[in-house]
Design a protein that fits this description.
The chain is α/β, with parallel strands linked by helices and 458 residues long. The chain contains 14 helices and 17 strands. It folds into two domains: 2-52 and 382-442, Roll (Urease, subunit C, domain 1); 55-375, TIM Barrel. Helices cover 36% and strands 20% of the residues. An eight-stranded mixed sheet has the order 3-2-1-4-14-15-16-17, covered by helices on one side. Strands 5, 6, 7, 8 and 9 form a five-stranded parallel sheet that branches. It has a four-stranded parallel sheet with strand order 10-11-12-13. Strand 6, helix 3 and strand 7 form a beta-alpha-beta unit. Helix 11 (331-346) crosses helix 12 (359-375) and helix 12 (359-375) crosses helix 13 (406-414). The radius of gyration is 21 Å and the shape is globular.
């Protein structure tokens, strides 16, 4: 058993003081005892503020090595998501398996240091640069799992089904051939990814990810949603207007409307971005029980647009947070950017706040719950029977002085940053201590070696 004593902790029923959390060897919380000041002296660890640690529900790990390399104007009159994508394709042509592993380890380490305990890796880089599969079709999936073994991250690995270059069924272009699989090979890939994850702790798992309506056929999507019915299913949807227009022209309806009319979208689904939706689509998506996978920093970087968070929350929708392109990995900034985008659009303040919960608390609690659902992970709360995914904040942070209750989260999200994160447990694994990952030096050294080899890729 491991015990953590918190002066203040956010629990399912709200804020409590002098809380003793007992964690079993399997990483599951055995008991939570509020108002237990007497146990402070004997606890294994002590925290000023203890929070449930969210899951990062959407990541493309390899893009982390592109950070800062795509901010110059190209030959096009106006840069966009699509010009950025061409640069990304050029970059990934250089990546070898050892590069993928080193980058993924750094990404997972930075996520843990930012306060995430779990990760959903939307993994679509599968083959060699010319499209030839590796001898082990799941070679690069195994590299993501190897990284998780090193970092202690609670991993949900989603092999991505990617078949065609657009809604018209055109063949994959030169930049996309590393992604492509037919259904038969995808089945073998999924088996291999599951085998890779069996070597990780029991809280790790897999799921299925048809990339998007523009990258899979109707027939393949129908088959894909039947795979691993007990595991999460994620899909990009309605990120860019050009995507919406292409789907509508070819499939006869806007992406979200088409999905809801043709598939039983439910709580197993996580729909990523959804930044280009009409009000009725937003309301219908909320009613489905699916999780909206929001990546505010990346959506800002790529000019995707603003998710209609106010309407979605008023309709009962659940959301989670991801770092997507990983150009900046910051839990507090993702949440802040989500709220601020709503304020800019609606010209208001504290727009996601509720009568009895501040904006910071709504953002944090709902992201923790939505991320857990999207990952198929038994987390999101500090409660008996849940995985011990927990964050300890620095009680000496200047802007935490005198703050109690919801104002703790308001200060963390709107005045602070991830430097306030002192300790992180992922399923009871104490991977971040005093703000640093336990394997930080080795992981950074491997990453720097990789970036030196890739420095002329763009």
């Amino acid at each position: 058993m491991t015990t953590v004593f918190a002066e203040t902790a956010l629990m399912e029923e709200g804020w409590r003081e002098n809380v003793l959390v007992t964690v079993g060897r399997d990483g599951v919380i055995v008991s939570v005892s509020p108002d237990d000041r007497a146990s402070a002296a004997g606890a294994d660890h002590r925290a000023a503020v203890l929070l449930p640690a969210p899951v990062n529900l959407h990541s493309h790990a390899f893009q982390r090595a592109m950070a800062g390399l795509t901010e110059s104007r190209g030959p096009d009159k106006r840069d966009s998501f699509w010009t950025w994508r061409r640069l990304m394709y050029r970059f990934l042509e250089r990546l070898r398996p050892e590069h993928v592993e080193a980058i993924a380890a750094l990404v997972q380490m930075e996520m843990l240091e930012a306060g995430y305990a779990g990760l959903v890796e939307f993994h679509y880089l599968h083959h060699q640069a010319d499209g030839t599969p590796y001898d082990d079709v799941a070679e690069l999936s195994r590299r993501i799992a190897f990284a998780a073994a090193e970092t202690g991250m609670g991993l949900t690995l989603l092999p991505v089904l990617y078949q065609v270059g657009g809604c018209d069924g055109r063949s994959l272009g030169a930049g996309q051939i590393r992604f492509g699989n037919d259904l038969d090979r995808f089945g073998r890939l999924l088996d291999g990814a599951e085998d890779a994850v069996t070597g990780l702790p029991a809280d790790c798992g897999t799921g299925v990810a048809p990339h998007s309506l523009r990258a899979v056929t109707r027939e393949a999507l129908k088959e894909a949603v039947t795979l691993r019915r007990d595991r999460p299913l994620h899909l990009h949807v309605a990120e860019q207007m050009a995507e919406v227009e292409e789907v509508e022209a070819t499939w006869g309806a806007r992406p979200m409307a088409w999905l809801l009319n043709n598939h039983e979208v439910d709580g197993r689904w996580c729909l990523i971005h959804a930044t280009q939706m009409e009000p009725r689509e937003t309301e219908a998506m909320a009613a489905s029980g699916a999780v909206a996978g929001l990546c505010p920093i990346t959506e800002s970087s790529l000019g995707d647009g603003i998710f209609d968070g106010v309407r979605y929350r008023e309709s009962g929708g659940r959301f989670g947070i991801g770092s997507d392109s990983n150009i900046r990995i910051s839990l507090s900034e993702e949440l802040r950017t989500l709220e601020y985008s709503q304020r800019l659009r609606d010209r208001g303040r504290a727009v996601l706040a509720e009568q009895r919960r501040s904006a910071g608390r709504v953002l944090f609690e709902e992201a923790a719950l939505g991320g857990a659902q999207a990952a198929g992970r038994n987390s999101g709360r500090i409660a008996p029977g849940k995985l011990a995914d927990m964050i300890a904040l620095d009680g000496n942070a200047l802007d935490l002085a005198g703050r109690t209750g919801d104002r703790i989260l308001d200060a963390f999200i709107f005045a602070g940053d991830d430097r306030w994160v002192r300790d992180v447990w992922s399923a009871g694994r104490h991977m971040v201590r005093e703000g640093r990952h336990v394997a930080r030096d080795r992981i950074r050294a491997n990453y720097l070696k990789t970036t030196a080899e890739l420095e002329d890729a763009l």
